[in-house]
Automatic annotation (TrEMBL):
UniProt source species: Bacillus cereus
Cofactor: pyridoxal 5'-phosphate
Name this polypeptide is given: Methionine biosynthesis PLP-dependent protein
Signal peptide range: none
Keywords tagged on the record: Pyridoxal phosphate, Transferase
Alphabetized Pfam families for the sequence: Cys_Met_Meta_PP
GO molecular function, one term: pyridoxal phosphate binding
Family under the similarity heading: Belongs to the trans-sulfuration enzymes family.
Gene3D superfamilies: Aspartate Aminotransferase, domain 1 (3.90.1150.10)
EC numbers, comma separated: 2.5.1.48
Amino acid sequence: TANGVCNRLLRFSVGIENSNDLIQDLKQAIKLVKEGVRI
C-alpha cells in the first residue's frame, strides 16, 4: 500500500453537482459493487 492507499479505498469528491444526480450516481455505483463489477 503505497502512501497508505489500498485497493479498498473509496475516493469521493463532490462539487456543485445537482443533489439528485449525485444520489443516482451513488446508487448506480453501489449496484455495480454488489454485482461484483470491477471498474
